[in-house]
Amino acid sequence: MVIIFHLFDRSVLRFSELERAIPGVSQKMLIQQLRGMENDGIVRRVVHHQMPPKVEYGLTDWGQALCPALDALLKWAAARGATDQTHY
Question: What Å distances lie between residue 16 and 13, 27, 78, CA to CA?
Answer without folding.
Answer: 8, 9, 30
